[in-house]
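Pipeline run #58 for the internal structure catalog. This entry was flagged by the ingest filter as a single-chain record with no existing model, so it goes straight to prediction. Upstream metadata was stripped on purpose; only the residue string is passed forward. Reviewer on rotation: M.T. Logging verbosity set to normal.
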Amino acid sequence: MPSVFGNVRQIGLMSRDIDRSMRYFVDAWGMGPWFVLRNQKVSMLYDGAPRELEVSIAMANCGDLQFEIVAQHDDTPSLYRHALQQTPELHVQHVAVWTDDVNGVERSAHAKGWSSVFETLSGAGRSVFVIHPSEPKVCIEISDRDPFKVRVRESIRRVASDWDGDHPIREGFPPI
């Protein structure tokens, strides 16, 4: 039976210290390079209300699987802030699927009892986060294949495949 969500393409982690977390993956896993966007203002929908957050986001690949680390810098209520209240330090916050039909996958998830709890309102494309009442700490991000996102994801994967350990942390997006 096929998964409602398709293939998992990303593991999303929450961190209180994004630099420490990136260094952990570089030093302990040998994974990189990391591309980090610092202190980004993003608009989200949480608990049915629009929210403005300040976050830093880092991305790297391990083979075809992308790892994303998010650190929220303010106290605005959000799914990220809620996740940090539940567990200490670095932990998995979501897994992500990438699809051409976010709305269709979201409808299929709702039919199986999942609820939409968080949604991007700024940036490229659309992402919506869903949880299931039987395991509300398991969160799935349904993210579209917006052309900009596709170029960034592919560039991160390509750079990681040839990475020699040099410059393990890089500011901004990779060359696309």
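catalog note: The first helix runs from residue 18 to 29.
catalog note: The helical segments are 18-29, 79-86, 102-111, 147-161.
status: ready for reviewer M.T.
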